[in-house]
Amino acid sequence: MKRLVLLVAATALALGAAAQTSRNALDGVLGNILRGQLPVPGAAANPAPAAAAPAVAGDLIGLLMQQGGSIDEAREIEIGRQLAAVLLGSKPLHADAGLQRYVNTLGRWIALQSSRPQLPWAFGVLDDAGFNAFAAPGGFVFVTKGLVDRVTEAELAGILAHEISHVTERHHLAALRTKAQAGAATQLLASQLRSDSAVRQAVQSQLLGLARNLYSSGLDQADEYGADRLGVALATRAGFDPYGLPAVLQQLRTQAPDNPLFSLTLATHPPAQARLEQLEQAMGQRLDAHAGKPAVRIEQRVAAQARR
């Protein structure tokens, strides 16, 4: 089998994922995605009316508040853009352009093996010493520099696959909808959208508040267990050691809850031991034939990519 680095590189070239050659280029791509300047699936068939950002936020709040019906993919991506902007507003992208290209290429390769390869997947490394990873609807995934520094390639692949699985299963959308429907203030604001521009801005703030609350409180435990199971299968399908994610959970299991570098991850996820037990039951020995690959450090991949 060809070396993984060659396979990833070939796929990246096919997707145009490695076109960025500088930090500015990467920022431009992510910025364009967040501003809605790149085409999204379904946009031509279901064009959203041009509107100011607060009005768009109000429309999204209305969608989230609906008791029935589904949110189409174009609007899911728009919600994700706004949530990704919240994350980027909290922590900037790390300045290492080579690392950014590598993580974006790796993430897109894994996402290509998922059930929703058509999403406008974008991956980035946040300039944060903590150990964490975040996803937003529509295909936006971020990991922190502190996480990247503490894992191997297979472990990073497992983490990215876990976050990708949250997106493909629309876990964040469901959580946002629950929070929006539970907010009486949101319902009051939404009822006045067409009559008061100040209220529209308040609705946009409400959407940002929902996002911040979501990332500080975490998803439902069942969603986390499900993303673990799907993530292991996805990482394996992408050619990585299936025990990458369990190895990360082993690392988390040894951390003290008050360690500031790990506290957010530990607070927003089920106990690592419980996640390991759930995975052990799901995996058994069925994926052992794909295990045992040599560990590869991320800096090796970044250096190899820079030489090409």
Output mean pLDDT.
80
Q: Radius of gyration, Cα only, in angstroms?
A: 19 Å
Count of domains: 1
Which percent band covers the strand fraction? Answer: under 5%
Order of helices and strands: HHHHHEEEHHHHHHHHHH
Distance from first to last alpha carbon:
20 Å
Shape: globular
Number of strands: 3
Q: Kindly report the spatial arrangement of strands forming the biggest sheet.
A: 1-3-2
Largest sheet, in brief, is: 3 strands, mixed
Low confidence ranges? 1-29, 32-55
The total count of helices amounts to: 15
Helix content: 55-70%
List its traits:
308 residues; mainly alpha; three-stranded mixed sheet; 61% helix; disordered N terminus
Quick structural overview:
This protein has helices at 4-15, 23-35, 53-65, 73-90, 97-112, 145-148, 153-168, 171-182, 184-191, 197-217, 221-237, 244-253, 263-267, 272-283, 298-307, and strands at residues 122-126, 133-136, 140-144. It is mainly alpha-helical and 308 residues long. It has one domain (4-307).
What features would you describe in this structure?
β2 (about 135) and β3 form a beta hairpin. It contains 15 helices and three strands. The chain has one domain. The chain has a three-stranded mixed β-sheet with strand order 1-3-2. It has helices at about 5-15, 25-35, 55-65, 75-90, 95-110, 145-150, 155-170, 170-180, 185-190, 195-215, 220-235, 245-255, 265, 270-285, 300-305, and strands spanning about 120-125, 135, 140-145. The two termini are about 20 Å apart. The protein is mostly helical. α1 packs across α5 and α12 packs antiparallel against α14 (about 270-285).
